[in-house]
Design goal:
- The structure is a homodimer of 197-residue chains.
- The first copy, chain A, has eight helices and no strands.
- Chain A has 197 residues and is an all-alpha fold.
- In chain A, helix 1 crosses helix 2 and helix 4 crosses helix 7.
- The longest helix of chain A is centred in the middle third of the chain and has 25 residues.
- The N and C termini of chain A lie far apart (69 Å).
- Chains A and B meet through helix 5, helix 7 and helix 8 of A and helix 5, helix 7 and helix 8 of B.
- Chain A binds a DNA duplex (30 and 30 nucleotides) through helix 2.
Chain lengths: 197, 197
DNA sequence: CTAGGTACTAGACAGTGTCTAGCATGCAGT
DNA sequence: ACTGCATGCTAGACACTGTCTAGTACCTAG
């Protein structure tokens, strides 16, 4: 058995799974459609039925990445917390974990596909954005933030996590330093002085 | 004249200059040694005398990028200012400008070359790090920061700029929003409440 | 039972990075 | 001045890649 080709449409999922592994191991440059096909036991042309392009594969990876990232944020932010501060911190660290643990994927997700991104990607990215906004929005209910600041704080939060993860991934900062960056940002943002200027 | 090959060692500089242009136009994936050679009017093997690898070319680009980035920060931070706050803001916005205007280059500089980076790159990156640290250090003299916080604030500052630029480059935030992120961070950091937690 | 679409195979092509051998130029040592 | 040699280049080769194409097996709708 099983010397027949994978067939039956699950090839797409197989390719994506293996692509994520390779992405983690060798980065985006070391991702080859032909190699993925070989590992899946299909011919080199087979992936074309599911991904017209190498770019299409990367797009699908990015979309998946956004969905998984959103799930991580959603899950961390909805767990019971003793305080809003701890909830915000826990969510930030979860996002940091994901970003550092999937550095190459983050690179695919956040590199220069400004206007040309597919609609599916934008939808997934929007879900992540909403998840982040949800955590910050909860801060309004908790009395920590003003409604008018939600967007600015969401972006500040996102940029900090993203930047800290990039520093770690490139070896320019340690994990402990990234934790400190995120903790400091949470503390500063909660100090409320963002209204002061 | 000039149908003779470029010769005489300036090929390296010519290739690097053109590589920066291509990098800006098509990103890191659209960077081909053979194409660069063609544009420089030399044979496809010529670049090998200066860059053993494609990776070596990217390393050289990264090194150059760190040096130029460091210069930008140094220059912005040493200009006369009416206050430390305006000095810190101006420097931050200069760094943001550079990061957004050279997004693909930043990608090359900050992607997963953890331990395997060349010594030259690390030296250039160190110069950038020192430049940033210098601006923050000046805040100690100005009475804005405590000496013990210089490293944390430097990293927070770097991560924020980096993150904000990445959001803009990927189309996930506007330039105005990135400015706001950076301004907010400067304001928060100067509020001194980083000591509070 | 048949028609058509889907998922694949297999061959081809251009382009790429990398390796190799060879040629020219200019410089150092005698 | 001649020789030796390193440097910077040319040119050919190889394996690999993404992409396109024609063809084949299968599943499913009619």
């Amino acid at each position: 058995m099983s010397d027949r080709p994978v067939h039956h449409g699950n090839l797409r999922a197989v390719l994506l799974d293996q692509a994520e592994v390779r992405l983690r191991e060798r980065g985006v440059a070391g991702l080859s459609l032909r190699e993925l096909a070989r590992e899946a036991g299909v011919s080199h042309g087979a992936p074309r039925s599911h991904f017209i392009d190498r770019a299409a594969l990367l797009d699908a990876l990015a979309e998946r990445g956004f969905v998984r990232f959103a799930e991580v944020v959603e899950q961390a932010s909805t767990r019971r917390s003793t305080s809003y501060r701890s909830r915000l911190r826990r969510t930030a660290h979860a996002a940091l974990d994901f970003s550092i643990g999937n550095a190459a994927l983050l690179e695919v997700m956040f590199t220069g596909k400004v206007g040309e991104a597919s609609e599916a990607i934008e939808r997934a990215a929007g879900r992540l954005f909403l998840a982040v906004r949800g955590v910050i929005d909860a801060g309004v209910a908790a009395g920590a933030f003003e409604e008018a600041d939600v967007e600015r704080i969401s972006l500040l939060w996102s940029a900090t996590v993203q930047g800290a993860a990039t520093l770690v991934a490139s070896g320019r900062a340690t994990r402990a330093q990234a934790d400190a960056i995120v903790d400091d940002t949470v503390a500063l943002v909660l100090s409320g002085s963002i209204r002061a200027l």
